[in-house]
Design brief:
Blueprint: H1 20-62, H2 65-92, H3 95-115, H4 121-151, H5 156-207, H6 214-220, H7 225-240, H8 244-253, H9 258-286, H10 292-320, H11 325-343, H12 349-374, H13 379-407, H14 413-456, H15 463-471
Helix pairs in contact: 1-2, 1-4, 1-5, 2-4, 2-13, 3-4, 3-5, 4-13, 5-10, 5-12, 8-13, 9-10, 9-11, 9-13, 9-14, 10-12, 11-12, 11-14
Amino acid sequence: MTSGIDEADGPKANEAGGGAGKDRDTAVSERRFRFLVAGYAVSSYGTFLNMVALNLFVYETTGRALAMGLFMAVRLASGFVAGLVVGGLLARFSAKSIMLWANVGQGSVMLVLILAPESLVTGALMAVSVVIGACGTLFMVALRSSIPEMVGEDRRAWANSLSITGRSLAMVAGFASAGVVVSLVGYTAAFLLDMATFVVCAITVALLPIAGGKGATSAAGASGTEKAGKGEKAEKSEKSGPRWRPVAFLALAAAPGLGLMVALRGVDAFGSSSHNAALPIYSTSLDASNPAVFVSAFWCVWALGNIGAQQVIQRYAQRTGRSVGALGFGYGTVVMSAAFIAAFAGFPLAVTAVIALIAGAADGLTEVAYTSHLQTLPATLRGHAFGLSATFENLGFGVGMILVAAALDRFTPLAVVGWSHGAAIVVAVVFLLRVAGLRRAERTGRVGLRKEEAVEGRPDRGDRDGAEVSRG
């Protein structure tokens, strides 16, 4: 694990010690990961499709906008709880089993909704919101925390970028087709299609050998079984106890600045709730007769920017072997938040399209940088860190939706988005200052260490070699 926040979150791809065998293994693992991302993209399409279809169905069934808000609140609360427990689950079960059953659970609950009699539809909808919210978080954390074991440390940025590209394409397709699917074939067919996407992803996960979670730690420790004996039993007894919460917070304390990074992610989710809630209102003010046009166009252009950024990041990672680093996350958050504020400033549509493109590109940059940096944690802490991060994100988005919905009744979309994303910019600046301070301290420490070695003549120490290697 790296100590602190540095620009190169991981080793270089062309690091010595490879060979033809390693290249073959890398090619195989990357091919398998591409299949996994394809299945993940299919299920993500189902997720975004049901976000629209289910909300419309809830409103049509109950006739109350409050019911839609309650449905979303339960979904977010389920994701919040799942984020707290997923680290402990990854310590007990393999990432593959968690990803598999997360998709089976989502597909099964959609079938329950389809078959539910009219008198039980409301209860089935609540069950759907709980299972979809929890299982979506479980799958996401299991996938992201296991990427280093699946593709190797030096291919983290490439893998993260590829998975985010698949998810962005699925988001555009899901949002764009939801209205068409519901209007042409009805809710039942839309739910069947949604269920089928989870089945496809579950089959993909079942057919692929996926490392991570308990499977990764047991495989890594197989060679040291004789040495581990009693230690392994002690570790299991520790994990079986109610110690997941301290471990989750220990993950944030494991590297300087990581807790602030996760907090910034939560504030960023709070800002995201504002533009998600304000877009339909702003779009209605532009064209009351057809408000969906601006919203759809905005997200399509946003996705193009996101996908374009992923292509650049993949080429950068392939050429240099480095991820974009923590600074990329901080600067990307500032640019993204500023772009979303500008999107509601009333600029001409052509200018707004450019702003949406920039917002999507910056969003893609922050996603890869953030995910790649959390993946530098040891496997024993990584799942807890991603789980706690998901909890912060769900909390930020959920609280934001409540506050933003109330604020939009009194203030303009520009004002609401301005102070929401403005808060993210303020925290991002604090984070960037923190990173700069850590780097100055690290450089000062390295200079002092070299001077000490030069004066005292201690060539036997390995600190310099380790620092030089980690710096790349």
